[in-house]
Here is the input.
Amino acid sequence: MAALKTVLYLLVYPGLIFLFVYSTFAEWFDRKVYARLQNRMGPTHTGRFGLLQPIADFVKLLSKEDVVPDRADKTLFSVLPVVGLAVVITAGLLLPVWYFEGSATAMVSFSGDIIILLYLLSLPTLILFLAAWSSTNLFSTIGGTRVLTMLFGYEVPLFMSVLSPAILANSWRLSEIALFYQHRPLLILPNLLGFVVALICVQAKLERTPFDIPHAETEIVGGTFTEYSGKKLGFFRLMTDIEMVVSSGLLATVFLGGFPGGLWLGLLQFVGKTLFIIFLLSAMRAMTSRIRVDQVVHFAWRWLAPLAVLQLLIVILIKGLLL
Amino acid sequence: MNDAQIIDILNTRFSGQVRDVTNPAVRRIFFTVEPKDLLAVVGGLKEAMGLWFLSTISGVDAGESFEIVYHFGHDHGNLNLRTRIPKADPHVESITRTSRGDPLRTRAPGHVRNGHRSYPRPASSPHVRRLAGRELPPPQGLEVRAARGGHPRR
Amino acid sequence: MRVAVFLPELLRHLFKKPNTVDYPFEKLQVPPGFRGTPFLHPEICIACRACERDCPAEAIVITQVSDVEKKFRLEIHNDRCVHCAQCVDSCPTTPKAMDIDNLYEIADFDRHNLKKDWTFVRAMPKKEPKPAAPAGGAVPQG
Amino acid sequence: MKFQIPIGPQHPALKEPISLRMTVEGEVIRDADIRLGYNHRGVEKLAEQKNWIQNIYLMERICGICSHSHSTCYVQGVEKLMEIEPPRRGIFIRYLVSELERVHSHLLWLGVAAHEAGFDSFFMYTWRDREVVMDLLEMISGNRVHYAINTIGGVRRDLDEGQIKKIRDGIKILRERSEFYLKIGSTEPTFVGRLAGVGYLSKADAIALCAVGPTTRASGVAIDVRKDDPHAFYDEVPFDLITADTCDVLGRTVVRIKEVLESYKICEYIVDNLPAGDIAVKAPKKAKPNEVVSRYEAPRGENIHYIKANGTDKPERVKVRAPTLGNYAATVVMLRNGFIADIPLIFAAIDPCICCAERVVELVDARSGEESVVRFSDLRALAAKRRPVRSVKGNVPWPL
Here is the structure.
């Protein structure tokens, strides 16, 4: 019976089906907000208000011709999208919002799961690099090197800014961190600086403007995805969507005090807070222009890293003086 | 620097090399030069009037010869230098020696790449194919692709 | 260093009506005088071939159907037409035989449907002194 | 290690086919090679087979964005050949449309440059406000792109009171929006970060390579045909020549936006003192044998038409030099020592109108260096030979 329940949880609720539906909804929300910020309509004709547009795109990609370049490493080239998807969905299971057995614990919750979540979220970047490298195309090679160069820029500030509230909450367990901030809502304020730094780093991780350099279509055609088409490209798109949902879930848990209030209220809180974060990401995407790779690394180490260290300092001071 | 001054510069300084200077409209001066002293005149104009702006080179198919018109712009008008080159041997010295001109790599001396050609053969004239004069070699590139089943991607 | 210079403008437009028009369902009005598709008033046409001579795209073809009763056939190839309305300007008749409407949705699945033709008997030019043809100064060659 | 990147004839950044071969070392460009000839349409040869009136509409179709520039340049030349003087009201309306076209061309460029730099919101906003000037042009001339308002000896349509009022309102909105774009274009940190110091063209290089238009004005070279060689209109209009001395893409952006603000001043001057009278003079059918060079300041730079008449009703030779061809030499110098990420931005900074600057190119055999011209019939024969290999779907017979 428990096995059946686990399979049900894996496949339906917090797992595949829910994440697929919710991430396509999140992509629709992002595209609609981005469009309305630019005073245009956004997807409107597929389904009510264009809700089914991301799903329509995904199904279209599934039906498209799937070309594998001659000199590419066929197995690696084909496996990577699926592995990327798997990694990101498992990261989704760690979020403390699924409410099994009554208490607000994730599908799998143990001390140190924030480290696992951060590690699982940085795996897709390496998968993108491997995908670019294995498709033996000039433009994707450049895209791949750019993915790695950017990784060195935003990875360290992201880890520092996400872990500083965990240090304040004095535990590495996501649900405990969330619980800590639910009991002391005032302590969210000192973390706002870390929240801004984390937002910028997540924008870079998801490769969205101003950091969408690896697949900047006006410079290097498709970048990492130049040789990908059909099902593989569809899976990569889905991977990026789910990664957006999971990253904003992580930020909501750590910075905005988790998702209290039982199964349904928790889910409502989860949807509300992640959409708020996605709104901020869309606003950033609409507000800025794409910057060059060297500027990303320069900006990261000149602004993001010092701010993250400052945030760490604030957290340690508060921890020492107040608690 | 109005037209009258330019005309008397042309007549005094390049008296031997320049002939039939006409001034059909305000700020428009046409004059003819022999191909052999083209470089001298252009160099001279550069020093005398600080002429630096070569707008373009027009080629006109005038029956048995090509008429090449160099359009120079100067601070308040337009100066047009005309030369005639026989169609049998359509070569004229490239003026990129005097004005620095075109940094696109020049393959053979005097032969500028397709931006500003030194012998601006008006490709639109019917004589271009006879000028090429040789039997047309088969276009190799397309042959190879056709042989390989035609579909590049497979 | 000004940050987020564009944000206030963006946020102001967040709840405004989008500027884009949902084309097939709402259509923008074309201003009067828009140059759409040329067409002929056959009863006024004096078959002087001014439009055929001045059409930059050679989209107008006038053939003589029968010589006895001066029957002509004017054919407009709308796929070649560049919609410049020079034919309307070159037409010497007053009121103009050649006219242009403001239809711009003329796409079609088969280009042969884009040909329109009129067969008509040539109207005689008016008897009073030859109207000073506005532009083009066409001499009817019959 | 060096390798060659083809920003080839088909590339998302290039709206029209042109080939830029970059030799690249890491992310830095060492050298660039521009190749033309992918879009040759034989406009000059075609112009020799059409009469003077038909050629107006052919000249317009040399370029989609600066169609009025080519048609005005051509009509100016032909009016000199035929020795007729268009009435002042016709001249005023003609240059009103040319200034409005400069506005729409610069706003279009601003959006495209923003898109190349990845600033899509700016692209959406500039192109939304460009609709105001497009509607004005559609109201005046009856079409959004090819206005066909010029005829030999004047213009074909008149302006009435209602249209003049609409033009004034439109210009008021546009001026306020353009000032906003000047603020955004020069202060938004991520956008300025991409533009400043990119595509450097020193003043000496700009002069030596005969660059034209806003590209050279941003390097401090003050040449503008409207000031140097005013044709019957611009010498009486109060407007000033915009130059910048930053010599980079940011300078070109600022020069273009300020030029748009100048154009509003010119448009308002035209609309304020539009003289009465008729708008066109009847033009003869033939022109006496003569030659003329007509110059015009297109949005991208100096436009030259060299027209030669031989007494018949068809021109003997029409030579068109569009401004973009003048800037190709400067582009090669600008691209050197740039980053790969900046290639589309630098190339877009000269506002290339590739179809304007198209030249026929000989096919050169890579091995033997021998030049040859492939006839149209050869290409057709080859296509016929490959037909069995082609997919069966549409064997549409050759329409021409």
